[in-house]
Every structure is written in structure tokens, then in C-alpha cells.
Input
Amino acid sequence: MNYDYNFCIHETSSFLMTKQIAFYFSEQKLNSSRMFNQKIILLLEGEIGSGKTAFTKGIAKQLKIKKNINSSTFILSKIYQGKYRRMHHLDLYRLSNVNKNHITHIIFQELLENLEDNDIVVVESSEKIGSFFSFWNFKINIDILNYTKRRIKIEYNKEIIDCF
Output
């Protein structure tokens, strides 16, 4: 399948700004009436320390998740309950050769099949899984520009939503 993707670019100069952009993004897009009863797949890419977890924390704050969000690098997957939605937080940084690992594919397939209509899946280091997610709603790439500055590129499926 060929989807028509578009993108938005934001620059931040602090951890707090990254969280604020994610909060606004979640408020305007993930929790819009158009998206509210849909499963949402959000892929996050970027180097270690680029702000992927900060972005995830901003989404969690907007979803009214009470628990502290930490990088799940050593856990792989964690589920958080928000006020109205669940967020599945996956960090695939420590995985290697996932495309060759049939068991990992089965695990991800089972996750996707068991999602509820209102669930959000945030996948950090999604580049580790190659093309496993043949469809995604949003793909976010965070580039490190310098010690504090980041460039956040949010790609989205044009058929689903407009850029903010």
C-alpha cells in the first residue's frame, strides 16, 4: 500500500519545550474528536538523548497519566492508563536483527491485535523494527542540533489528519 505522508517541523531549545510540543500535539491531534476512538501508532526515532522520552512524557501528561514515564530501554514495553486512553510505551533500542526474529514479530503482531480502539502505541527507536509497522499514524524524528536544540519532524498520514 502506498500512503500519502506530509510533515511539520518544530525546533526546541529545552527539554521542557520538547514536552510542551508533545503535549500540544497530543491535545490537538491524538485526542481530537476524529482520532479519539481509533488505535494510534506513533513511531519515534532519534539518537540516544535526542528527546524521545521527553516527547513521550509530554503525550503522557496530556493523556493525564499519573505515573512517571521513564525510558523503557531495559523493560521493552510498559502500559500506562490515562484518564480516557491507555498508552503502550515500547522502547526498542536494545533490540537487534528484529527483522530476522520471528518470535519478535509474533509478539508485536499479538500486541497490535489486542489493542483496544482507544489505545495509543508509542514506539521509541522504531527504526530497529524496519518495516514491521506497515502503517502508522504519526512518525516523529528528533534530531540533535546542539547541546540543547532539537529539530522535531512530525510526519503524518494526510488521509487521517492535517498538520498543526
Q: What stands out?
A: The chain has a mean pLDDT of 82. The CA atoms of residues 79 and 143 lie 26 Å apart. The longest helix spans residues 15-30.
